[in-house]
Amino acid sequence: MRSDRIKKGFERAPHRSLLRATGLNDGDFEKPFIGIANSHIDIIPGHYYLQEYGRIAKDEIRKAGGVPFEFNTIGVDDGIAMGHEGMRYSLPSRELIADSIETVMNAHQLDALVCIPNCDKIVPGMLMGALRVNVPTVFVSGGPMKAGHLHDGTPIDLNTAFEAVGKRAQGQLTDAELYEIECQACPSGGSCSGMFTANSMNVLCEAMGVALPGNGTVLALTPEREALVRRAARRAVEIAADERFKLRNLVNRDAIHNAMVVDMAMGGSSNTVLHMLAISREAGAPLSLRDIEEIAGKVAHIAKIAPSLATVHMEDIHRAGGVPAVLREAARRGGIVREDALTVTGETVGERIRDARTADPELIRPLENAYSPVGGLAVLFGNLAAEGAVVKTAGIQPSMRKFTGDAICFDSQDEAIAGIMGGKVKPGHFVVIRYEGPKGGPGMQEMLSPTSLIMGMGLGESVALVTDGRFSGATRGACVGHVSPEAAEGGVIGLVKDGDRITIDVAARALTVDVSDAELARRREGFRPKRRDPGSSWLRRYAHLVTNASNGAVLRSTDL
């Protein structure tokens, strides 16, 4: 076992002495040492109860013949960090989480790993760190939140609350109505109830085979979720000495392909593109944006979930058959699902989905009745995004899939929020928010506040938005993010002026500004990208090392 390096031989007597101080005895030194990476933190609704799941996992590992060692990672709640400087720390936290997994697992030479994440950056951060360690690993998330309901039974979620702010600003909601939404939108623990980034990533873990069936859809704080935690912990002990289940053997090109198939079929968060680019690089099977666009063109969009369809939430998809049913239906388009991919349970993806059935063909539609013959995410290219940009097509109204508007430019999210609230944004505008990319932000803030204001103020079918920042999984509308190159590295988005005509054409996969190459070259003369001092040594280091969104916003190591 890998852990023999810290527990075998006479020269390891001091090591064993320290381990005995934690409660180990002679018999424990013959057992596999299993790490439990727990992202428990009290301030995140999807994480405050994970301490209990950690205790359950430790109990099951002991019963199965292993020795558990639990440790914690940090976590950021994107919803709470949204709309202020705290959001600059969200994406950078992914790197700290990955580093912490690598550090603890390799410093102590543990044999296998159980990861208990739930929300946004925590899932990909754990995946990235676990891929570096490359031991047998099982992921089991904390599970999705139940949908909220208004007094009349209308289902609501966190996105309802964000959009309600715009409606209140327009006088379309009373304070009492806003208060009801505030109190009912998030009714329990769990990752926010729609196909936002957290649930998207937990679904993708299931699709990649690193988690058990149900990981993405079984509700939090239920007996079914607790049973899933127990099975995952036992499985970690079973595979601890089996090299077939080293994480890089599971997260290979086929698994990453299957993840993107499910992402497209379910219209996942645009953040999944950013994270899967980074994860694929850690796995040694790098994706490109053009690879993702190729997959999108072959996968039908068969399941719409909030925010794309406000009345459908993760619990509904679970009842309809969950991820296995989605994969099985997608696989009917021959060859699109890599069915020979191995999963952590020892079965192939094909074997896992063989008996899956769709219990509700309106929730998980057959290919013949798909929402779209192509996927729910799209990659756009053009003179405004030479290296690519990403849009969640699942959340765009048909009338906005091709739209030309006059640019109105803001050099930060805060400026944009003030401008939208102040009435500067009018029908026919194409809002530009720049200097919010990984380097320019720094930290690539999510733009849920401005996009929700646009929707809440009734501008969703007359205003589009483009940014080198990113969006919450709750964002909907004609909102294009991840523009690369970003403004801070001299991208064309930094050269756009108020009044320039910008066009999004989803069918053509194009994002262009109607400015000639000669004029752009003239504007570039003497152009110096703005530099924002974040007032933080960590964020300065991050800005210095981070790549743009088309490269997954990973940190460069070449100049260290």
What does this entry look like structurally?
Helix content is 37%, strand content 12%. The protein has 560 residues and is α/β, with parallel strands linked by helices. It folds into 4 domains: 1-29, no CATH class; 31-147 and 188-294 and 335-350, Rossmann fold (3-Layer(aba) Sandwich), CATH 3.40.50; 148-184, no CATH class; 378-551, 3-Layer(bba) Sandwich (Glucose Oxidase, domain 1). Strands 7-8-12-11-10-9-13-14 form an 8-stranded mixed beta sheet. A hairpin with a 5-residue loop joins strand 5 and strand 6 (155-156). The two termini are 33 Å apart. The model has no long low-confidence stretch (mean pLDDT 96).
Keywords:
560 residues; alpha/beta; eight-stranded mixed beta sheet; 21 helices; 12% strand; globular
List the helices and strands and how they pair.
Blueprint: H1 4-7, H2 13-21, E1 33-38, H3 50-63, E2 67-72, H4 78-81, H5 90-108, E3 112-116, H6 122-133, E4 137-139, E5 148-149, E6 155-156, H7 158-169, H8 175-184, H9 197-208, H10 223-238, H11 247-250, H12 253-266, H13 271-282, H14 289-296, H15 314-319, H16 322-330, H17 349-353, E7 378-382, E8 385-391, E9 402-410, H18 413-421, E10 429-433, H19 448-456, E11 464-467, E12 479-484, E13 501-505, E14 510-513, H20 517-524, H21 537-545
Parallel strand pairs: 1-2, 1-3, 3-4, 9-10, 10-11, 11-12
Antiparallel strand pairs: 5-6, 7-8, 8-12, 9-13, 13-14
Helix pairs in contact: 3-10, 5-6, 6-13, 7-8, 7-19, 9-12, 12-13, 12-16, 18-19
